[in-house]
Please model this.
Amino acid sequence: MRNGTKARETTVTERKVLVVEDSRTQSERLRYLLERAGYCVQAAANGREGLERVQADPPDLIISDVMMPEIDGYALCRAVKSAKATKHIPLVLLTERRTPGDILRGLESGADNFITKPFEDAALLERVRRIFENLEVRRRGQMDVEVTLRVAGRELSISVDKAQIIELLFATLEDLDRLNGQLLESQRIVEGHARDLEQKVQERTQQLLQTEKLATMGQLLAGVAHELNNPLSVVMGQTSLLQQAVGRGPAAERAEKIAKAAERCARIVKNFLALARQRPPERQRVTLNAVIQDAVELLGYHLRVDNVQVELGLAPDLPILWADPHQLHQVVVNLLSNAHHAMRASPPPRRLAIEARYDPVDERVVIAVADTGPGIPPEVQGRIFEPFFSTKPVGEGTGLGLPLCQGIVESHGGTLRVESRPGEGATFIIELPVTTLPEAAPEGPGEAPPAAIGGKAILVVDDEPVVGELLADLLALDGHRVETAANGALALERLREGSYDLILSDVKMPELDGPALYEEVARHRPELCRRFVFITGDLLTRGTREFLERIGVPNLSKPFALDEVRRVVRRALRTETSGTASR
Model:
């Protein structure tokens, strides 16, 4: 009650609030909030209009913006507080700034409270509710006091009442608490983003390291494969010639064992190239159960010696796969060997379970290799497919086995993963897609070569004498006249001296390599270009692949089998003979 006498209690619906705000959006928002809370709300678009409304019909509370045209919030506050009839009306300033200078200026103007923009709806309504609760107390117990403050080197004396100071302190505490909550929430969000960012950085770093490892591994494997190609070609070729020479008997059996071992080495080299993503799988129709049984048989003796019980659960109705049987065999052998090694330190019984089944829903064949070993710790599971990572002692593991397996499986469109808990063994799961088989499979190495065409003149160009001699011996057995040259420059001399029906050339050679030899022949003897067959162990090099793709002549990859050489040579001679006859 403005005259100091006790007034009747006023209900919320009788409370009148004047909103002075030049922003129509803010004004409507405040009107909506206050009216929904039960207050009677009037609005003014600026300080001058607000002062006129206060003088004409004094409200119970004024909420005013600070920055407004004509009369700002501070001036409105001073005008309201300087008039005897309106000085006791609580006035709340809405401001976007809350520096000490702003607060002092508001106090000098007579403001009772502050609300900082942007504000929360609940906080504003709670502030209004408390102001009305304390209104009568302030009117009955008002006692002005003079407060002297020192701010920025200035002493300011402000005449305010105690309740006003308390209100201001509570408002400041509320704002500080709200801001502190916002800061804590922001800190939580920032820390969350920081953790996510750190995790992403770690993941990207690991990806980069993995990429670098793969690149290093590819270079290493390429170098190893290239160095093995020529000697393996000689071993395989000479063994084949030996088998033809000895016929039957103990020597033939020994030669057969040497041939199988050499072929296995050749498959390992091809797997190296597949791991380096430089050689596609040599696909054909594959019976998966036979591949698994062969792998188990290969390791059977070693498993029996260590008392490992093998349990096979191979579904009899597995579909035929279009895959590389040698690569899949290598994967199964590697997984079985790893499981065997893991169980060596485990007490009996030691069990190795291999299952194969068909999933008709996903149209995939699933292979599971499970052991009863110690299991794989969680911190290791995330790294077991990294190249060069190994848990085996130095000298017992290269860290290439599982990356090789994963590379082979993925090149077949499948996946390889591990499931393991410490103390409960490990299970490696392979999933391979079942695709539509081609109507006619391509000619494979086990098929009969085309009919022989003898009596042709062939030039063999290779800087490795043993490889050149091997090819010469093979082709001579088929009735051809063969001459050799150690590089492209010597081959050009031979071509100037005579004519040849076919030229078998290596790619990488000193002085003049295979591509340079071909370009020279194309310039001076273009009719001989279609008589080339290239034999190379350098398909890893991009330039070599692009060269062979561009010229489109037949090529053989080292290490090669003699049957492959015969097949390619006979096909090339037949093509050349057909072309000559048509002309």
